[in-house]
Amino acid sequence: MFDGIINVYKEQGYTSFDVVAKLRGILKQKKIGHTGTLDPMAEGVLMVCLGKATKLVDMITAKDKEYKAVLRLGITTDTEDISGKVLQEDGISPNITKDQIESVIMSFVGSYDQIPPMYSAIKKDGKKLYEYARQGIEVERTPRPVTIFSIDNINITLPTVSFDVHCSKGTYIRSLCRDIGERLGCGGTMEALVRSHVQSYDIDDSLKLSQIEELAASKDIEKYILPVDALLSQYKRYDILEKHSKYLLNGNKLYINQMNVHKDTNTCFMEQSLRDKELVRVYKNDEFLALYEYNKEQNLFAPYKMFLG
Fold first, then answer.
1. Catalytic entry in 3, 18, 39, 204
2. What does the alpha-carbon distance between residue 11 and residue 22 come to, in Å, rounded to a whole number?
């Protein structure tokens, strides 16, 4: 069984679940999970966790992401992307200038409350929104806070507008396109979407399912599987002292004097610099074994996620 993370290029036409199902067959293991849904019409980076790394799915899903999007102005659809049923097609006023369009797009940089699309897996009263949508029922959705960190490389060739967007978890680019169109007064829908980055992992390093299948057949796939801790570099690293390693292996609480800050750590992580509930990585003989959470009041670390055995 493989343990780690693989950077998959999700192609158009596949759901994220399709990718996981196919990987289970290719890699011949069941313990696989993806880290952030991409719509069937979208493509790009889908970080997939294997084996022990599946314990990290919820943490990696929470990462911010970067996309390349294409917005079609003058049209609205029920799915908020070009694959949906056209609800309105009014075209674009000849009085709208490129400067106005760019100004409206840039006005979304920052935090705002976004209403999620009806065609989404968000639940309301125990039922997924897309289930209501397929029955022709539109329900009231609670706006959710999202953050647009940046929008760059805006290219306006009406009726389409392309741009790069860096955003927080939970942001629907379809809904961002909808909101831009509404603010311009002409409507808008997403025409194309490519996820280009998840954290530091780039689309240029991603593998299509066909490539993964070839690599698995030739027994070379392990070279492309990132270690379990690959997306955890933002957390401080500690190494358990050998004489105290039994406490780690038993999943016990740990004290700071039972560990050393890793020798390659550039920042001075003294005890007083640790924040309450801060997560740290813990290793034994360079093997990543656990994430621990610091309890400032008790001045100790409690197990958060264990990766033993």
1. 39
2. 13
> Going by DSSP bridges, is the β-strand pair 65-73/43-50 parallel, antiparallel, or unpaired?
unpaired
Contacts of residue 50, defined as CB under 8 A and 6 or more positions apart, other chains included, come to: 1, 2, 3, 4, 5, 6, 27, 29, 31, 32, 225
pLDDT tens per residue, range 159-179: 999 999 999 988 999 999 999
State yes or no: is 39 an active-site residue.
yes
Q: What is the pLDDT of residue 266?
A: 46
DSSP state string for the chain: ---EEEEEEEPTT--HHHHHHHHHHHHT-S-EEESS---TT-EEEEEEEEGGGGGGHHHHHTS-EEEEEEEEET-EESSSBTTS-EEE-----TT--HHHHHHHHHTTSEEEEEPPPSSS--EETTEEHHHHHHTT-------EEEEEEEEEEEEEETTEEEEEEEE-TT--HHHHHHHHHHHHTS-EEEEEEEEEEETTEEGGG-B-HHHHHHHHHTT-GGGGPBPTTTT-TTSEEEEE-GGGHHHHHTT--B-GGGEEE-TT--S---GGGPPTT-EEEEEETTEEEEEEEEETTTTEEEEEEE---
Q: How is residue 290 written in tokens? A: 């656990």
- CA distance linking residue 173 with residue 151, whole number of Å: 12
Neighbours of 185 (CB within 10 A): 11
What's the pTM?
Answer: 0.85
